[in-house]
Amino acid sequence: MTHHPLPTVAILGAGSMGGAIAQGIARSGDASSVIVTNRSVEKAAELAGLPAVTSLALAETPSANVDAAAAADVVLIGVKPAMVPDLLREIEGALRPGTIVVSLAAGVTIATFESIVGDAIPVVRSMPNTPAVVGKAVTGIAGGSTVTPEHLALVRRVFETCGAVLEVSEDKIDALSTISGSGPAYVFLLVEALTEAARGKGFDEASARLMAEQTFIGAAALLAASGEDPAELRRRVTSPKGTTERAIGVLQTANLDGLFSQATDAALARARELAAGA
């Protein structure tokens, strides 16, 4: 089916995450117009060459946030969580009724957004992750009190330019962040540990890294390409009474399920502390 181009999208505070989304929209070929803002001229220059992107620096154009918000149908808020209320107060007069405001700010509730932008502005809260920069994100989105299925479908399309999208209720956003938000760090930790194991077997740093990293990258690509259940792929590598089976036996003594449950529970507890201002 043919896609209509996306409406005008503004990304206010296009840091690493907002910048990744700008790149995703630009690469998708669906962009009509993307307006991004940053404080410094240097930061703005990094995004200036992308197709369909207008990159504004607040240092040069102090009204950039208001101008961008006034021109857009979807406004992504990418500034640091503490700066969100001030930014919303700055732009709320410029938002046309029905403009969708999308939060990229971890820990800021939909209620906080709605209390400032008012009833005429649908609010969607999102939680992308850093693989957005290579178009492989997982993004959770949750709609606020006036969001329609059409609003959510449009926000989904914006985030699908840089990966997969899950629609959840807002009370699941923190839990989602412990899996997909923090999850890349868990994978990198496993790669570090396997690299260390290779060095312990007498391989030099470059060889150890190549083996560990490419094995993870290859396994992930095989999982993606095969469409098989990971347990099935694991069985295919694990011959009965073979070497892999013995290694897996040792790993399973670590109770990885329980360990990951504990780790993600700890992250969730911290998210709740942060929300409470601790």
TrEMBL record:
It is an enzyme of class 1 (oxidoreductase). It catalyses: L-proline + NADP(+) = (S)-1-pyrroline-5-carboxylate + NADPH + 2 H(+); L-proline + NAD(+) = (S)-1-pyrroline-5-carboxylate + NADH + 2 H(+). The keyword Calcium does not apply. GO terms for molecular function: pyrroline-5-carboxylate reductase activity. Gene3D superfamilies: NAD(P)-binding Rossmann-like Domain, ProC C-terminal domain-like. Pfam families: F420_oxidored (PF03807), P5CR_dimer (PF14748). It is found in: Cytoplasm. Residues 170-274 form the Pyrroline-5-carboxylate reductase dimerisation domain. Its EC number is 1.5.1.2. Pathway: Amino-acid biosynthesis; L-proline biosynthesis; L-proline from L-glutamate 5-semialdehyde: step 1/1. Residues 8-107 form the Pyrroline-5-carboxylate reductase catalytic N-terminal domain. Keywords: Amino-acid biosynthesis, Cytoplasm, NADP, Oxidoreductase, Proline biosynthesis. Catalyzes the reduction of 1-pyrroline-5-carboxylate (PCA) to L-proline. Belongs to the pyrroline-5-carboxylate reductase family. NCBIfam families: proC. This is Pyrroline-5-carboxylate reductase. The lineage of its organism: Bacteria, Bacillati, Actinomycetota, Actinomycetes, Micrococcales. The gene is proC.
